[in-house]
């Protein structure tokens, strides 16, 4: 049987063998951008373990035991934990006033999500132009921005303001989950599978 003390060296070995240089940056992004409520329990444990493993890899010394973190790495983790714990009531990225989480929904490739910089006064038409650029869409005239809930799918008018819509929804008590989706406008010549038309595939990438 292996215990918790064996997990860090094993994780370090696996990450070293994976040859994923971008992982270090992704871990730092998650540590700073994830909602603090998601950093408790197993999620926080595995994230800090991954950070510790990357710290060992970057500062590897053959004579150093693989399970021993440097004092600098331990201090960094302690400081991060104190800072992020103090922000437990902070909103998630999606709640920030100038950020909007939008998904591109395609018939063949499913959903891809991006967090976009969208000001409160930006119109849906402007958000669609931004989505066209960010998602590299070649036929923007056939796409539109939709507000998806568990029961409805509503195409937003060009002169509406997505950030204001988001703020209004959040202001209601017990507001239902919702998503902004940039996708093709349904028409008689385009057959969209039912499970994608009603937005069910969004569960794979949101929250």
UniProtKB/TrEMBL annotation:
Molecular functions (GO terms): guanyl-nucleotide exchange factor activity; small GTPase binding
Protein's name according to its UniProt entry: VPS9 domain-containing protein
Domain Ras-associating per the UniProt entry, residue ranges: 96-187
Alphabetical list of PANTHER family matching this protein: RAB GDP/GTP EXCHANGE FACTOR (PTHR23101), RAS AND RAB INTERACTOR 2 (PTHR23101:SF51)
Ranges that cross the membrane: none
Recorded superkingdom: Eukaryota
Gene Ontology annotations for the cellular component aspect, listed alphabetically: cytosol; endocytic vesicle
Gene source species: Oncorhynchus mykiss
Record Pfam families: RA (PF00788), VPS9 (PF02204)
Occurrences of domain VPS9 (ranges): 1-66
GO biological process: signal transduction; vesicle-mediated transport
């Amino acid at each position: 049987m292996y215990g918790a003390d064996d997990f860090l060296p094993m994780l370090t070995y696996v990450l070293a063998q994976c040859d994923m240089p971008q992982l270090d940056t992704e871990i730092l992004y998650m540590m700073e951008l994830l909602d603090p409520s998601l950093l408790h329990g197993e999620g926080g444990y595995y994230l800090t373990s991954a950070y510790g493993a990357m710290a060992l890899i970057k500062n590897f010394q053959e004579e150093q035991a693989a399970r021993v973190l440097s004092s600098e790495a331990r201090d960094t983790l302690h400081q991060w934990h104190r800072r992020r714990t103090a922000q437990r009531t902070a909103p998630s990225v999606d709640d920030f006033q100038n950020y909007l989480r939008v998904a591109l929904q395609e018939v063949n490739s499913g959903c891809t999500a991006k967090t976009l910089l969208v000001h409160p006064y930006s119109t849906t038409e402007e958000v669609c132009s931004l989505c066209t650029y960010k998602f590299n869409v070649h036929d923007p005239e056939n796409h539109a921005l939709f507000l998806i809930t568990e029961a409805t799918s509503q195409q937003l008018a060009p002169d509406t303001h997505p950030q204001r819509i988001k703020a209004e929804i959040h202001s209601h008590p017990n507001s239902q989950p919702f998503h902004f989706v940039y996708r093709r406008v349904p028409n008689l010549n385009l057959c969209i599978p039912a499970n994608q038309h009603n937005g069910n595939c969004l569960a794979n990438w949101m929250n």
